[in-house]
Amino acid sequence: MATSSALAAPVATDQKNDAQAAAPSPLTAPAAQHLNALMERLAKAPRRRDFKTVPMIVTNRDQWDHEALTAVLAYEPAPKQAWDNADMAGPWLNLMRNSLNAQIWSFKHPDFLAVSATHGSAQLALYDQAMWDKYQLTHLAGGKFKTNTLIEERKAASADPANFEDPAGAFSPADNSIPTLMRRGVVFMSCHNAIWEEAAALIEAGVNPDKLTHEELAAELTNHLIPGAILTPGAVGTLPELQQAGFQYAK
Known about the structure:
The protein is α/β, with parallel strands linked by helices. Helix content is 37%, strand content 9%. It is built from 10 helices and 5 strands; from the N terminus they run H-H-H-H-E-H-E-H-H-E-H-H-E-H-E. The protein has helices spanning 2-8, 18-21, 33-44, 66-73, 92-106, 129-135, 178-183, 192-204, 214-223, 235-244, and strands spanning 80-85, 113-118, 187-191, 230-232, 248-250. A 5-stranded parallel β-sheet has the order 4-3-2-1-5, sandwiched between helices. Strand 1, helix 5 and strand 2 (113-118) form a beta-alpha-beta unit.
């Protein structure tokens, strides 16, 4: 069975890739000591990206990024917010950006942490462009995205971060991008269940150039999550864990 081979596969204990190692400087508030410390822990936490197969339901913590997830659940400063994000074409990045701005500068909470429990079509935004090209993911995205533009750096990200009121800066609608939100401390959690279902949709549509099994195709998608993403057993199933840890639910 594919499940047993997945459990038997070796666990990568030092899988911080080059993109993470060379990550640009944070865009957090100067007083965000706790948030900056979490970002450093998450950058060092291993991500397993060497799967050969994955099962429909993961049952062993070695099948997801348990160390990174545990660090997020242990984050103590409040308030903190968990977003239920399921629509890639929706306003999810803009809403999280607005929430950050209000919490940090209006309510004076520099250590405010926002987490994206990402599933549905929003999960497509967490694959690298190689997967978009190979599996024509634009079709799963409804044709609204020819490429994964949400992971592209924006010009606004290079603006002076000291000028947080800049209407064309990194904290403005001009930079609703995943890389900039990550630099601000936003945690993007990936959904194993969405990966499994998207693999099934690709096989059903005949978009499977290597003739992979369902378990193998889901593994390949998992191995191509963008740097910094945290793989979870399932976004919706992880939301209760976040809420028990004090995260406020938002959608």
